[in-house]
Amino acid sequence: MNFHTRKWVKPEDLNPNGTLFGGSLLRWIDEEAAIYAIVQLGNQRVVTKYISEINFVSASRQGDIIELGITATEFGRTSITLTCEVRNKITRKSVLTVEKMVFVNLGEDGLPAPHGRTEIKYVKDQFQEDIIN
């Protein structure tokens, strides 16, 4: 799993206990996962269909830098399934895991549409395609 997105835990991200508010973290995860799905499927029209159990493993506090790791685990006809881990950038301690997130590819009519993808597409491969075409 590659960890690309980093977030700095700031005062406005905290709950009354002084730790990272779960809702803020889930918002960041959903946004990052949607961007990942958009890049993988080559379509800006994707929607979150399903998020499995969310396992909060440890707390983050103000000043922590966390990083989000997401990878594709399955390609359906109109969907992509992802897994996610959030960890502390410095200690590498896991903060949260999400076993399964499903995004659906939509057509211009707003209905599920086949995407034709079957495997992870890496940025280096996308640049190579652009050079060839």
Overview of the molecule:
- The protein has 133 residues and is an alpha+beta fold.
- The chain has one domain: Hotdog Thioesterase (Thiol Ester Dehydrase, Chain A).
- Helices cover 23% and strands 36% of the residues.
- Strands 1, 2, 3, 4, 5 and 6 form a 6-stranded antiparallel β-sheet that branches.
- The model has no long low-confidence stretch (mean pLDDT 93).
Q: What's this model, at a glance?
A:
23% of the residues lie in helices and 36% in strands. It is an alpha+beta fold and 133 residues long.
What is the count of structural domains?
1
Query: Would you tell me the structural class of the helices and strands?
Result: alpha+beta
Mean pLDDT: 93
- DSSP strand (E) fraction? 35-45%
The helix content is 10-25%
CATH homologous superfamily, by name?
A: Hotdog Thioesterase
Low-confidence stretches: none
Structure annotation, total helices: 2
List keywords for this structure.
133 residues, alpha+beta, Thiol Ester Dehydrase, Chain A, six-stranded antiparallel β-sheet, 2 helices, 6 strands
Write the layout of secondary structure elements.
Layout lengths: L2 E6 L13 H20 L4 E6 L2 E3 L8 E11 L3 E10 L5 E12 L17 H10 L1
Antiparallel strand pairs: 1-4, 2-6, 3-6, 4-5, 5-6
